[in-house]
Amino acid sequence: MTAQTNAVTPVRQTERGGLLIGLALLVALTLLVAELDGALAAFFRGQGVAQNLLEYPLTAVLVGLAANFVLRSLKLHAWLKPAMRTELFLKIGLVLLGARISLRDLLATGAGGLIQALVLVTAVFFFTWWLAGRFNLPPTLKAVMASAVSICGVSAAIAAAGAVQARREEVTYISTLVILTALPLMVLMPFLAGAMGLPPQVAGAWFGGNIDTTAAVVGAGTLYGPEAQQVAAVVKLAQNVLIGFVAFALALYFALRVERDSGQRPSPRMIWERFPKFVLGFALVSLLATAGALTPPLVRELNTATQWMFALAFVCIGLDFSLTSLREAGWKPVLVYLSATVFNTLVALAAAWVIFGLAGVAAG
After folding, report:
1. What is the reported pLDDT for 106?
2. Dihedral (C-alpha) 14, 165, 251, 105: value to the nearest 10 degrees?
3. Is the pLDDT of residue 192 over 80?
4. Are 116 and 204 in contact (CB under 8 A)?
5. Residue 291, SS3 per DSSP
6. Angstrom distance (rounded) from CA 7 to CA 5
7. b/e for 195-228, b at 16 or more Cβ within 10 A?
8. Coil, helix or strand for 280?
9. Cβ neighbours of residue 2 closer than 8 Å, sequence gap 6 or more
10. Distance between CA atoms of 186 and 153, rounded to whole angstroms?
11. Are 205 and 351 in contact (CB under 8 A)?
12. Distance, CA of 329 to CA of 273 (rounded, Å)
């Protein structure tokens, strides 16, 4: 017994050391991301561009990828891996994100954003689910991808992954696709909207309904103008509200249908175990914000904390990225994701024009 205990203790000490040093490295890399984000923002302002075209999620992933390469070259990646808690940081960030979502403000801004969010999330989710099924993708990957494309990118992917018990590699894979797609869309869509002569409200609704990260949505809206930025943020906000509903529906579906097909007997306990508990925290914070229980200074502090948590998570995504996992997944998920993004782009444009364009003309 003593020999066995002595053999286990050094292993645990090694894991603890890797965790502590890894966390210190994560903090250092995140601080580096903050410095780079500030420097890039100053650079773009010097070029006459108000918005930082390289939003911090992309910068964080690139920093994480660079550190990933160095750690793997030094054979230290496996030792520090316990600190790479992508899901934990994102879940904390999602709970804090509820402070930005006051249902009163959302309704006061207009029902158009809510209507468009419901239309888009429903249409894009089921199209992606159907197309992924045609390509024979695993059910868990279908759920994560459909949620990411239809709702709000990485945040929705994490919520869906918790509901369906998806593999960590699937979440990392989809998160990488989300981030790599969001930056080109953030720059390209305002250009296309200008070329088509879209009114600011229509353009903003298009950005908010199509681009998969909140930061990139705000960036695209800023490039097009203040009114477009406001509408884009509202539409994306309305989609964020649906995270909890979709996560619950997926947990219910997988427990009652997928697990039953695999021979497991569904039960209320199974549904509860599948349900991503952090969604309850998200809903609670959102209700507090709606009730006015959170003061404006506190909301600003929580928003800052949300960005830090997301930055830590995006650094982890870069650190955790594996070419081996990417090769194993193949090109089918990429084709499905890009096809779903094109579908989302077209449907979002049509919905934005009908809800915000024609309605505006009728009101005028």
Report:
1. 62
2. 60
3. yes
4. no
5. coil
6. 5
7. eeebbbbbbbbbbbbbbbbbbbbbbbbbbbeeeb
8. helix
9. none
10. 14
11. yes
12. 27
Confirm if 279 and 155 have CB atoms less than 8 A apart: no
Position 363 scores a pLDDT of 45
Contacts of 202 (CB under 8 A, 6+ apart): 193, 352, 353, 356, 357, 360
Read off the pLDDT of residues 142-156 as tens digits, 9 standing for 90 and up. 999 999 898 877 778
CB 57 within 8 A of CB 213: yes
In total, the chain counts a number of residues equal to 364
Work out the number of other CB atoms within 10 angstroms of the CB of residue 79: 17
Structure tokens, 126: 């089921």
CA-CA-CA-CA torsion sign (235, 241, 247, 253): negative
Q: What is the pLDDT of residues 240-293, one digit of tens each?
A: 777 778 887 888 888 777 666 555 555 666 666 666 677 678 778 888 888 888
Q: Look-up: residue for tokens 């989710």? A: 125
CA distance 305 to 150: 26
Pair 241, 287: CB distance under 8 Å:
no
Q: Output the CA angle 232-178-105, nearest 5 degrees.
A: 25
pTM: 0.69
Reading the block at residue 271, the tokens are: 């549904």
- List the one residue out of 170, 162, 173, 134 whose CA is nearest residue 250: 162
In this predicted model, which residue has the larger pLDDT, 351 or 223?
351
pLDDT in tens, 168-191: 778 878 877 887 787 788 878 988
Helix, strand and coil percent figures for the chain, each rounded to 5: 85, 0, 15
In angstroms, how far apart are the furthest CA atoms of the chain? 83
285 within 8 A of 301, measured Cβ to Cβ: no
Distance CA 36, CA 38 (A): 5
